[in-house]
Amino acid sequence: MSRTEEDAGKQTTANGLSPLRVVHLTKRYHQRSGSDLEAVSDVSFEVAAGECFGLLGPNGSGKTTTIKCISGFYPPSEGAVFVGGYNVHARPKLARQFLGLCDQEETLDSDFNVLDQLIRHASYFRIPSSVARERAQVLLEQFGLVEKAREPIESLSGGLKRRLQVARALISDPLVLVLDEPTTGLDPDVRRMVWEVLMQARSRGVAVLLSTHYMEEAQRLCDRAAILHKGRILDIASPARLVEKYIAREIVEEEVRPGVIWRREPNLEDVYLKLTGSRLGVDGL
Amino acid sequence: MKLPDSIWGVWSVWRRYFSVFVKSIGYYLVTTFVEPLLYLFAFGVGVGSLIGTLQDGGVHLSYRRFIFSGIIAQTLLFQGFYEGSYGAFVRMYYQRIFQSIAITPITLSDVLWGELIWDASKATLAAEVVALIGVISGEFPLMSLLTLLPLCFSASLLFSAMGLAAAAYSRSIDELSYPQYLLVFPMFLFCGVFYPVEDLPRALQTVAWIFPLTSVNSLVRTLTIGLPFQSWAVAILLVWLLVLVVLARRAMTRRLVK
Fold first, then answer.
1. Torsional sign, CA A215, A218, A224, A227
2. Model-level pTM?
3. Residue B1 burial (CB < 10 Å; 0-12/13-18/19+)?
């Protein structure tokens, strides 16, 4: 697998290692039928401090499984994940001290209101409530949730819940921030708000891992991206490099409606479709 | 059995449950205490006036005293089982609380310990309230509140684990009715809450002793109203406790972690 090292802003931790390292990760699920399903096959990548790394792929490509292994919730079948230098499976208490995670599914604790949600979550990281309260105020402002601070979770719309869940991932001031499709189903303005916060985290030196199937989002935010298909990484490079490598033309023509042809610059979506879409066709799925 | 990864982790989870409990204390007071009080009143006053006295383990005693101590065991069973089954199913399946805590420095193992210990704490509290009512009304000695504590906690841990195992094996919340009707209610009716197990036919007595509630009843009555101590009751209780705690934790982990 080719890896390009052209990217700017690649810093490393004090010991010279990236805050997030996924090393030859393979994950097999035992199925009821008795056979194993290999959801992730030999996936390796690193995310440096201050880097935003995209995990791109269609549904079922292994993005969520990879993230479940990174969080230490699922044990890897082979390989390992290191967060802040610690093996997340072997030393979860230490490794996850550095990890902020926003799951794809809603996991907000509906027994607490918006503000208490953040403070409670901070307590799981041994963060004193005075510190948590200050951080929570900042996050509520950043995510436009100040007026909702005392609201119960059930009263929030889907978009507000998602914002809160991203905010919750940041309450522990993590070294590594992992988000599984954080902007799915969000309005464009809210999506921009989430992007802004992610970019702020990145510029503070946080290693950001973002799984998405919005190519515009990946192209805009990610310093590098991995294209995942059927559990395997097809390529890792910067979005620009990927476009250059796989789409040889300078202008793409696309028939958007019968008789209406748009001419535009190629983008990551073209790469994505070429790498994953064409394979779908070949495999007859 | 896997011991807690960190006492602090278990304590953090316990505190989460406790703060929810305190926030909605009014609701909990009603749901936790009204049920045993209704049983106490219906059977203590109603059936009690009908029966007068009975004999258990060679001891003559009033039905009121007998049923008071039985309701302690019933409270342990119901409170422990419901919190561990329905309560935990909602937390695991609908609220996804286990999943959201077990990605922080607190491990899933500790989340499950926190869950079980909380469920047991809540059931113990409810049973102690029943015992307190018994003390106030002069049925039990004051000291029994203290001597009951370790028994109540072990028994509620046992029934919470039974509930948590049920939650782990149930695909939907409706399926929790199976253990409720096939295990909890039969125990409630046949394991000595309402009448001495020794009044059952011999074969049924043996069956009743296999189920843990009979042992719990026997031990509660030893501590509250001085019925003879039966050492095998302790053994049966401990075996069930160990088996169910291991089973519940294993089943729930297997359900959540792929």
1. negative
2. 0.89
3. exposed
Interface contact B105-A120, CB threshold 8 A: no
ipTM above 0.90, yes or no: no
The three-class DSSP label of residue B31 is helix
Joined together, the tokens standing for residue A105 give 């599914």
Q: How would you class B107 by CB atoms within 10 Å of its CB: exposed for 0-12, middle for 13-18, buried for 19 or more?
A: buried
Residue B153 counted as domain residue: yes
Contacts of residues A260-266 at CB distance under 8 Å and 24 or more positions apart, as own/partner, are: none
Q: Which of B47, B77, B81, B33 is nearest to B195 (CA)?
A: B47
Whose CA is closest to A127, among B98, B104, B7, B99? B104
Inside any domain, residue B26: no
A68 reaches B (C-beta below 8 A): yes
A94 inside 8 A of chain B by CB = yes
Decide if B10 is inside a domain.
no
3-state secondary structure of A158: helix
CA B103, B107, B112, B117: dihedral to nearest 10 degrees?
-120
Report CB contact under 8 Å: B105, A94. Answer: yes
CA–CA gap between residue B160 and residue B166 (Å, rounded)? 10
Question: How far apart are the CA of B7 and the nearest CA of chain A, in angstroms?
Answer: 12
H-helix or E-strand spanning residue B36: helix B25-39
Tokens of B184: 């909890």
Render pLDDT for B56-69 as a digit per residue (tens, 0 to 9): 888 888 888 899 89
What's the Cα-to-Cα distance from A243 to each of A55, A214, A217, B211, rounded to whole Å? 16, 15, 15, 68
Which chain A residues are closer than 8 Å to B101 by Cβ? 124
A40 pairs with which residues across the strands?
A: A27
State which residues form the domain around B250.
62-83+116-256
Q: Kindly report which listed range (A10-24, B86-100, B129-143, B217-231) carries the lowest average pLDDT score.
A: A10-24
| Chain B positions in Cβ-Cβ contact with residue A111 (cut-off 8 Å) | 20, 23, 95
Q: Is residue B130 part of a domain?
A: yes
Instruction: Tell me how many domains chain B contains.
Output: 1
Residues of A in contact with B99 (CB under 8 A): 73, 103, 105, 107
Please determine, for residue A4, whether its predicted confidence score (pLDDT) is greater than 70.
no
Is residue A243 within 8 A of residue A214, CB to CB? The reply is no
Structural domains in chain A plus CATH codes: 20-238 (3.40.50.300)
Q: How close, in Å, is residue B20 to chain A by CA atoms?
A: 7
Q: Output b/e per residue, A175-197; b: 16+ Cβ within 10 A.
A: bbbbbbbbbeebeeebbebbbeb
Closest Cβ opposite residue B103 in set A71, A110, A123: A71
pLDDT score for A278: 52
Distance CA A255, CA A265 (A): 14
Which residues in chain B are contacts of A103 at CB distance < 8 A? 99-100, 103
Query: What length does chain A have?
Result: 285
Write phi, then psi, for B92 (nearest 5 degrees): -80, -45
